[in-house]
Amino acid sequence: MFTRLDHVMICVPDLLQGIAQYTKLGFNIFAGGDHPGKGTHNAIALNEGDYLELLAVRDTAEYAASGKAGKSNTGLTDFIAAGGGIRYVIVQSDDLTADVAAMRVRGVDVSDAMEGSRRTAGGQELRWKSATLGAKNPLPIFFIQHMTPMAERQQQVPLAGHHPNGVYKLERAYIVVRDAETEAAIYAKVLGIPKPELHKGTVVMSDMAIFEIGPTGLGVVTPYAPGPAADHLARRGPGVFQALYRTTSMGAAARWMESHGMPPPARGVRSNGEHAMLATPADTCGAYIGFVGLE
Predict the structure, then answer these.
(1) Topology of domain 2-156, per CATH?
(2) For residue 193, with 0-12 CB atoms within 10 Å meaning exposed, 13-18 middle and 19 or more buried, which class applies?
(3) Quick one: pLDDT at residue 69?
(4) How far is CA 195 from CA 170, 174, 189, 230, 255, in A?
(5) Is there a smaller number of Cβ atoms within 10 Å at the N or the C end of the chain?
(6) Superfamily name with CATH number, domain 167-293
(7) What is the pTM of this model?
C-alpha cells in the first residue's frame, strides 16, 4: 500500500548553489551522490520519515547519452531552463510490485517496479524500486519502495534532521491544475483513494482536494484568487508548486533565514486556523517552500 509522501524532487541548475540556498533556508542538506548512467547527482535533507531532494545535471554528455533513462529523467534540462523547482512528488510504497498490479486493475497506465540504486559520496550503496506513470496518466508523481532501511539511509549524511529551521516532516505537497474537481478524480483512480471533497485553502488561495497518505497529504488545487498557485499556473502551467514542512518553531526558522540574508517569509493563516509562512521561488530555486507550526 502507499504509506506516505516520500520526498519532493527539486530540480536546480547547479547543485552546489542549490545546497547553499537550502542551507540559508535552514535545512541540513548534504551532497548525496551520483546516479550512474544518468548524468545527474543530488543532495538531500533528511527528516524523521521523509526527505527533501535537490537534483541537478552533473554531466551533460552522460545525460544526453543516457537515452533519457527513466521517465523521471526525461526533459530535465528543459524543466531547469524554464525555471526549475519541484518537478515530482514521490509516493512511498511498502510493496511496489503489489501496488503496480493494483493500479493496473484500476486501469492505470504504469510501468513495472524497476530496481534502482545510487552510490553515496561515502561509498554506501542505496537501493530501491520505482515505478512511473505512462502516457495515459501523465501526472507529476511517481512511486518508490526503499530496499535500504531508513536507519541505514540516515548514515549517508553527517547529520540527519535537527535542522536549524526546526523542520521534522513533510506535511503536504501541492499540485496546481486547471480543474481540481476533474483532476482529483484521476488522482483518486491512480492512488486508489476516494476522491476528497473540495474546500478552500486560504494560504494557497485555491479550491483544494487533499489526499491523506499516511501522515502526509497531497493537495490537488485550482486557484480562486491571486496567490502562489495562480502564480505558478500563469508562469509554468499545471504542476507541483509547493512543499509544506512542519516545524517545531516558525520563529526559529524565520530568524535563521533573516540571519543568512533571506527576506522574512510572507505569513498567512491556513483554513484550520494555523499560521504558516511561505518562501518564494526567487529564494528557493523555483519552488514555494512553506512552513507551519508553533511560533
Answers:
(1) 2,3-Dihydroxybiphenyl 1,2-Dioxygenase; domain 1 (3.10.180)
(2) middle
(3) 45
(4) 22, 16, 8, 23, 39
(5) C
(6) 2,3-Dihydroxybiphenyl 1,2-Dioxygenase, domain 1 (3.10.180.10)
(7) 0.93
The Cα–Cα gap between 285 and 180 comes to 26
Residue 1 and residue 94 in contact, taking contact as beta carbons nearer than 8 Å: yes
Residue 38 confidence (pLDDT): 85
How do strand 288-293 and strand 199-201 relate by DSSP bridges?
A: unpaired
8-26 pLDDT per residue, tens: 999 999 999 999 999 999 9
The number of residues making up the chain comes to: 295
The answer to whether residues 40 and 73 touch, using CB atoms and an 8 Å cutoff, is: yes
Query: Would you list the domain boundaries of the chain?
Result: 2-156, 167-293
* DSSP-derived secondary structure for the chain: -EEEEEEEEEE-S-HHHHHHHHHHTT---EEEEEETTTTEEEEEEE-SS-EEEEEEES-HHHHHHTTS-SGGGTTHHHHHHTT-EEEEEEEEES-HHHHHHHHHHTT--B---EEEEEEETTS-EEEEEEEEB-TTS--SEEEEEESS-HHHHGGGSS--S--TT-EEEEEEEEEE-S-HHHHHHHHHHHHT-PPPPPEEETTTTEEEEEEEETTEEEEEEEESSSSHHHHHHHHH-SEEEEEEEEES-HHHHHHHHHHTTPPPPEEEE-TTS-EEEEE-GGGTTS-EEEEEE--
Q: How buried is 183 (Cβ within 10 angstroms: 0-12 exposed, 13-18 middle, 19+ buried)?
A: buried
